[in-house]
Amino acid sequence: MKRRQALLGGLGLTVFLGGCSTLPAPASEDSTPSSRTEWSGRLALQVLTEPAESFSASFELSGSPDTGTLRLFSPFGQTLAAAEWQPGQATLRRGDEERTYPSMEALTEALTGTALPLAAVFGWLRGVATAVEGWQVDLSEQAAGRVQAQRLFPAPEARLRLVYR
After folding, report:
1. Is the pLDDT of residue 30 over 80?
2. CA distance 92 to 110
């Protein structure tokens, strides 16, 4: 628990410092949204526990729901963590530490306290309102590179915001 609190506390500083950075304009409309396999930008996750926990970082996401890579960066460009997944396994690397999980959902739940629906996130980034039980997604600004989603159940509630190019 202390390790997670320390990580989230450090990432809280990232949230504060991340507010000072800006993103370039979204990618041109040349790439077909349904065929994209790479995104970069900023993400913010708030888990509504008592007290609420927040996480924010720059990210690079590539691949598909089945096989891919997610890298998280500080506002200064330092790698905070890197995750790679394939069917039946997800690996998280932070500094010299490496941990293996049965899935990305299990990895994100262990790291943040809530499982993120990876397959849906890929759909949302492509502008597809992929349904996930307990989640609501707002794609009204997806063409501008913004997606918001909220998990209403099971507890704890969570809010995910993605700003990407």
Report:
1. no
2. 11
pLDDT one-digit tens code per residue, 82-112: 999 999 999 999 999 999 999 999 998 888 7
pTM: 0.78
Cβ-based neighbours of 13, under 8 Å, separated by 6 or more:
none
Distance CA 6, CA 15 (A): 14
CA 69/CA 66 separation, integer angstroms: 10
Q: Which residues pair with 135 in a beta bridge?
A: 151
Domain residues for 149?
Answer: 2-164
Count of domains in the chain? 1
Domain containing 8 — which CATH number?
2.50.20.10
3-state secondary structure of 164: strand
